[in-house]
Amino acid sequence: MSALLTLERVSAGYGHQQVIRDLSLALGEGQLAALIGPNGHGKTTLLRTISGLLHPSGGTIALEGRRLDRLRPDQIVEAGIIHVPQGDLLFPEMTVLENLRMGAYLPEAAREEARRLEEVFALFPKLRDRQGQLAGTLSGGERRMVGIGRGLMAGGRLLMLDEPSLGLAPIVIDQIYEAIATLRASGRSVLIVEENAMRIAELADVLHLLDNGSFAWSGSGAELLSRPESLAAYLGA
């Protein structure tokens, strides 16, 4: 399988504080890869670096061979990487529909807006009923659905999700994971940050364990599920 996303010895951080160090990975077309590990060890920083919100201090990032690490965030979106950040980050005084349509601002996405809306509503049926409701009045789970849906409206080759289940009730987490499973089954390439390693292991093709800014372990979901005790110290199990 040829790589869609390639990172080679990527380092990044904030000011003089280096958070991630010499990270390399390859994500294939149609794969779901998960970043797992303790809080504060670089998972969100890595997503922010890929999407251009942080500039790497070293290394290269490429999408199908095209260098991204020198591009602006808007250029990276145009190249095909969509980043759904942690938290809601919606426009609370706008309706659900208006928030979703904000994701379809690129020319190609605008042309396909109606079709993509139907895809989002099929993935999250509750949003069809809520489309005229102000985003600020939604429940936490509904806001998370809108955030993911807005990212899907932009299209792209790779969808990056930062802790999509964070702070949600178990029944809502099940709904979010059903949607992620549907995306994976449709062939969508996904890179996801998730604290619940055992849950994402059921879906992921590959998992990367980040510890102090470096990969301490990489392997398949099946490998993690077959010997979770080997990673217990890192995962807090």
Automatic annotation (TrEMBL):
Coiled coil: none annotated. One of its GO terms (molecular function) is branched-chain amino acid transmembrane transporter activity. InterPro entries: AAA+_ATPase (IPR003593), ABC_transporter-like_ATP-bd (IPR003439), ABC_transporter-like_CS (IPR017871), BCAA_Transport_ATP-bd_LivF (IPR052156), P-loop_NTPase (IPR027417). The keyword Transport applies. GO terms for biological process: L-amino acid transport. Gene3D superfamilies: P-loop containing nucleotide triphosphate hydrolases. Keywords: Amino-acid transport, ATP-binding, Nucleotide-binding, Transport. Residues 5-237 form the ABC transporter domain. This is Amino acid/amide ABC transporter ATP-binding protein 2, HAAT family. CDD domains: ABC_TM1139_LivF_branched. PROSITE patterns: ABC_TRANSPORTER_1, ABC_TRANSPORTER_2. Belongs to the ABC transporter superfamily. It comes from Tistlia consotensis USBA 355. It comes from the Bacteria. Pfam families: ABC_tran.
